[in-house]
Design a protein that fits this description.
By secondary structure, this protein is α+β, with helices and mostly antiparallel strands. It contains 3 helices and 7 strands. Strand 3 and strand 4 form a beta hairpin.
Amino acid sequence: MLNEKLLDVLSHPADGAVSIVTNGDDGPHLVNTWNSYIVVTPDDKLLIPAYGFNKTERNLSVHNDVILSIASREIEGYKAKGTGFIVKGTTRFVKSGEDFDRMKERFSWVRAVLEIAVTSAKQML
């Protein structure tokens, strides 16, 4: 599911902002993180450390679908340098277990881990 170009964006050392959009009863809600914070599991799930994300968690407890915008000016796109992806998936918040412990070791401030099972990843640029 995750192609090589998206993995290049996620692993590039020049940090890029990642936007996470959820939908709540009062409409869309947006939070951001950094591409370097995202861990890709062997089964292509994305793990994102959550410090706040309280409204995101509330929204996802009702509608567990999420959309992410992930981009980098440093990775070659279709026609020039710079590419981006729209990633869709289903989610859950993980607060214990192996994935949580691994993320807590890397990010001491984490209160939960947003786990995203990717359902589509479309390159936009």
